[in-house]
Design brief:
CATH topology of the largest domain: Rossmann fold
Helix content: 40-55%
CATH architecture of the largest domain: 3-Layer(aba) Sandwich
Radius of gyration: 22 Å
């Protein structure tokens, strides 16, 4: 309608919105999944209408728990809330507890942290994920045989739950399944490729290979 004060009103509405600064601590920067997750988080913040959301993204190329805890505490000093993908370790849990005491809420993304009932979790049901993978394997494999699991690290609760529930499902389905020792990927393409080749050459009769995240 050409109302001359339209711009002033829009600016006032924008200025009246609270500003929220959110920090996200993700895993290795070279992994495509985490690059995509970072972009999705930034896009969601940009389109959120109830507040002006500023996003700080950090990556953990060093997965040592002490380093993760230090990075987490440092990020918590800069933001109003933290979302993170991290290993389940006492030092990490202590850092989360310290942030919560300081009034900084923490949300675990993808992988839960044990013993932190007040920390929220956003992710899938990893027990169901592992059992679903087992269900598919029992129907796709011609007959029971040897089965292996690949994980990036068993310190991630999500991967541990996926692995345990996968093994549990196969064991309960048939005693003829031979469950091999797990192999690591360390979230490194070359390392995972080499480990997979080693597994396939050492187990020519392998019936199933489950990559439990990572």
């Amino acid at each position: 309608m050409g109302f001359h004060a339209k711009g002033v009103i829009e600016q006032r509405i924008l200025n009246d919105k609270p500003t929220v600064r959110l920090g996200f601590l993700l895993q290795k920067s070279g992994v495509a999944f985490y690059k995509g997750l970072a972009q999705a988080l930034s896009n969601a913040a940009a389109t959120f209408t109830r507040a002006r959301v500023q996003v700080v993204i950090g990556y953990l190329d060093d997965l040592d728990p002490a380093t993760v805890a230090q990075r987490l505490l440092a990020l918590g000093d800069q933001v109003d809330g933290v979302g993170m993908v991290a290993v389940d370790h006492p030092r990490v849990r202590d850092a989360v507890a310290s942030l919560q005491v300081a009034g900084v809420p923490v949300v675990a993304l993808i992988s839960e942290l044990a013993g932190l009932g007040s920390a929220s979790y956003v992710g899938v049901d990893n027990r169901l994920m592992g059992r679903t993978a087992g269900w598919f394997v029992t129907r796709l494999a011609g007959s029971p045989g040897s089965a292996a699991v690949m994980v990036s690290s068993q310190r991630f609760q999500c991967q541990e739950l996926c692995e345990m529930s996968f093994r549990s499902y196969l064991s309960s389905h048939s005693t003829d399944w031979e469950l091999l020792a797990s192999r690591l990927t360390l979230e490194d393409d070359d390392f995972a490729y080499g480990n997979a080749l080693d597994l396939l050459s050492g187990e020519p009769e392998l019936s199933a290979l489950y990559v439990a995240l990572g």
